[in-house]
Amino acid sequence: MAAEMQRFVTSEDDDEEMGMDVKEEDDEDDDDGEKNIESPAMLGVDGGLAASSSNNRFVHHQQYQEQPTPQGGSRRCRPQEEKERTKLRERQRRAITAKILAGLRRHGNYNLRVRADINDVIAALAREAGWVVLPDGTTFPSRSQGARPVGGTCSTVVTSSSSHIPTQQTPPISLRGISSPYQNTVEYNACQMKSVFVPTSSPYDESSSIRTNSSPLLGDGGDVHNDPLLGGSIDSLDNKQERDFAGTPYVPVYVMLPLGIINMKCELVDSDGIIKQLRVLKSINVDGVMVDCWWGIVEAHVPQEYNWNGYKRLFQIVREIKLKLQVVMSFHECGGNIGDDVCIPLPNWVAEIGRSNPDIYFTDRAGRRNPECLSWGIDKERVLRGRTAVEVYFDYMRSFRAEFDEFFEDGMISMIEVGLGPCGELRYPSYPVKHGWRYPGVGEFQCYDQYMLNSLRKAAENRGHSFWARGPDNAGSYNSCPHETGFFCDGGDYDGYYGRFFLNWYSQVLIEHGDRVLSLANLVFEGTCIAVKLSGTPWWYKTASHATELTSGFYNSCNRDGYAAIVAMLKKHGVILNFTCAGMSMLNQNVDFSEALADPEGLTWQVLNTAWDVCVPVASENALPCHDREGYNYLSEKAKPTNDPDGRHLFSFTYLRLRPLLMERHNFLEFERFVKRMHGEAVLDILA
């Protein structure tokens, strides 16, 4: 590899002319003489070097003739025959390059961008050999800490939903039993696939433990130090110089209220205790609180009979204490997922319909129903006592808007988050724990209720292939790995004609569902910020198929950006993206994260940059409980990227969640310090 690198370096000038997008030379280009003198070296399909013959290296130059110019001078011109030969050579070079790139993508797990050129290939090979390649082409050994050139860094784009960025001087980390060209998340993202920014150094770059596979979020349901995604990286922040956040942009901080704050009778639970806790939060200048408004509580018994009593009392208390409110329209059930400490099912009348018509729920290939939320197949079907699912959501939101009009008018309700699927997230329920899913299974497609199958049948008929009106029969089960299936394996059916048709349809149903509901939400909540929660599923992200994302409804295989269309839909409605890697909380604390070829940082950077590139604001939240200095420093760094050239930062941050443990003295003092840093205020105990 070192020998190949040396030959690549010595032919640097030639390589600059070898892109896939090289324009065909015209007869007015005087530089063609030099281009024909020496043909640049090309990578062969077998990985070796294939150089064009040099026997006629000077023949083309000698064929140039002197031709008078109107100014009395002379210029060189080429015969027509030579022009055609030049074009033919260029086409041949591009054909060879295309085959090389295709082979690397399919067989080497190189996630090269669609219009990659020879520079991308060389950079990928160099990184696999342990070198560091900066965006400007500067290359140096990864272990040469002092050799890194000043000013050669690239801007960082980080959010609270990404873990600490590893340094670019990281030596390769071999994945257990798996050969992958991207030995760490920086190497993968540095190839600039899908408009992802390359991270720069940070105050914590020298920490070796940070350089492991890390979580994009502090997930839900465990301690930060034991999180397999962080790999102990929080501990490694000890004794490092902290960043001073004084004068940085103001990021509002909200606190999520307990799931069971309103009981099934729509009564406020422990109002005196809530008042005391909210006053304490107000004393440290927390901006507000977030609360779920559960469909299963408010419209529990009879269609279009809404009981908002408990929420009215809660909202009055929040207003008296002068806090803001973020409200979630929760059209899913609570319970059955990790971290759920209460059980709130869908409305009783919906359950009655489901007993006679179970196709209103998402269904897997084996026919198992998931009553966590309604199937998107009934968005336009009048199966809910004469109403469609979208009409039911619309009526619920209208009732809420009318009932709490005064709170909208005085600006106390600052944001409405619209639930669009399981856990309130825009995704399919493809990895339900209740059906036996365990990390790192790929999950299953959820398209087997009669309404979804009817939609698939129509799409297949419109395409002219009615026999495509079926789900994949070789996609494995919930706990399969990609290489164990014929659909998700490298070169599998996901990339065939049928696979591309099915995945396009499957992902489009998700986008259309979001589009329908948000269109009505904008009518109801005109003038109020609306947000949508999007979950990240980073396991198997380093495989070609991105299987877990495919079953979740994100058509994000290695040569396709599956989030651009979703973000475009959100931008159309002026909606805020609340991105979090949901599902992280489901991971067993002892799991080796690298086994699943996961890349949480790569996924986070892709989604966040896709949103920011089209000016869609991004909010986020932690998922794992966080109560210590290191964890809060971690969140602060991700909320306000240090070197982002555009000064981008989170729109808001929501802390999950209000519990007695948070109110303990030491924990609360750390939380107060975190709030000040998020607000851009100075703190007195910044480490020297």
TrEMBL record:
- The top EC class, named as a word, is hydrolase
Catalyzed reaction equations: Hydrolysis of (1->4)-alpha-D-glucosidic linkages in polysaccharides so as to remove successive maltose units from the non-reducing ends of the chains
Per the record, the domain of life is Eukaryota
The keyword Hydrolase is assigned to this record: yes
Q: Where is the composition biased (Acidic residues)?
A: 11-33
* Tagged with keyword Hydrolase: yes
Q: Known EC number(s)?
A: 3.2.1.2
Pfam assignment, any one: BES1_N
Locate the BES1/BZR1 plant transcription factor N-terminal domain: which residues? 73-205
Protein name as catalogued = Beta-amylase
Organism source for this protein?
Coffea arabica
- Chain's gene name: LOC113733176
